[in-house]
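EI: anyone free to look at a 553-residue chain?
SC: sure, send it
EI:
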Amino acid sequence: MTPRIRGNDYTALQPPALGSSWTPRLRVSVVIPAYADQVKLDLTLAGLARQTYPAGLLEVIVVDNGSEPPLRLPEIRPRDTRLLVCAAPGRARARNTGLAAATGDVIHWMDSDVVPEPEEVEAHMRWHHLAPYLSVTSYLRFTTAPLPRPADVAGTDDLAKLFEPAEPHAWIEDLVQRSDGLVRSPRPFSIHIGGASSVSARLFERAGPMDPEMILGQDTEMGYRLAQAGAVFIPDPQARAYHLGPSMRMRDSASISRVSHALVTDRVPGYRWLRTHPSRQWKVPQVEVLVDAAAGSYDDVRATVDGVLAGTVTDLAVVLTGPWDELAPEQRAPLKDPRLDLVLLRAHYTHEGRVRLVTAESDTQSPYRLRVPPGWVPEEDGIGRLLDVLRGRERGLVSVLLTEDAEGVTAARLERTEAFSRAALVVEEGEDLDDAVDEMFGTYWVDGETFGFHAAAEAPAYVNRRTAYRKQVQAQAEVERLTKEVERLRGQVTRWRDEAAQWRKSAVEFRREIGTLRRQVSALRGQVSALHRARGLRGIARGLGRPFTFKKT
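SC: here you go
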């Protein structure tokens, strides 16, 4: 039984130790696109000539991408090495030439300036024997050491003696460390690099070849498509190689990012922070909404499609499936045409840029696919809320219960593309695909009413974009007014606080003055009492006829 990896948690697999007595059986094709620089190519092939993986299961395909003078195969090379020519410029075209000629169960990309350690291919292949949907990446070190001779590379037992000191592939190693070895990374495909990555050939059958329109960023775009095909991405620190010189990104990171981001943004919805525009369309949309046009009336299908297009999620495309190529509209009696509703749908949506009319469902490169039965309409933020559920729970499927009766359950389904692609690779005969998705990614049910799905007759009216804009402007103006009012009140409070502080200061001074006055009054009272006593004693003395002397104490 094929192992079923949950998410990108490849730690469930236990590869054999390097050099142990395991029995390889899979054939690997190492594809090397090359342009000029014969000296570095010779070193790459010398490194491949001393691999521990069985020579009978290893083929090497070098693709000369129009070098002048043409490249040649050196004396030190693997025994099954071929040299092909791709005159059309571009690394993607050169790789596709090698991919088309490859016969291996696994395709191992390698650049012509990378020298692998002797166990590098074995380190990759031990993983591929465990599951047919893996992508393994080597750890590269970038060296500026003087280039040795090919014989030195083929003869040494330690490449570090020839190429150290060297720098690590810092951003990849940092990504791996931050994501617990990519197990917890939301975008593990980012690690796919053409310099030293291997992929099951079965995945390329689903993902397709490299995109020649990508002048930079090809590896990331290819990695994204492999992810949608069901790949699990593995960084193997025991698969090691040396890159001769710094990478392009090391030499000019800002310029590389500027170009690659411009190309990747259109094709990789996973990098959502690059898609900053609120409403524009992209080559690969975030969500593909699938509606069976033949399963409902013109009115029901239109209600569903229009509701989807009116929602807050604009990074989407609607796919209407139906027998469009069979339609021949009736010209003499159109109202009696049995396929009139399909004719109307085609006329209504042919020129809508976000709607595609297809005859049959096919694979998608969008990370999410939403299936909605005709006649059911999501509220304005219904799809957005569903996406939040799927992303937040990292599930493979969210089913939306719309209605249930004696005939069964009617539901909408938001599917994670990579989950269903991987399930298709491992599902056994007679097994339900949803069960395999549940085992590897998990599934979840929600209530349609709670998430804003309504029957067409009960669906709320659309919010006019201009009306919504005016309300937004009014709300912003009200916020500004209230902000100013708050600032005014804050100023008033500040003045009151200042006045209160003055009052508190005056009160302290008053209390001090009152204390002083109380002490003075107390002293005066003492003096008055003394005078009263003195007068009383004098009166008594006069009455007795004796002299009285007031004695001060």
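EI: Residues 465-544 form the longest helix (80 residues).
SC: 👍
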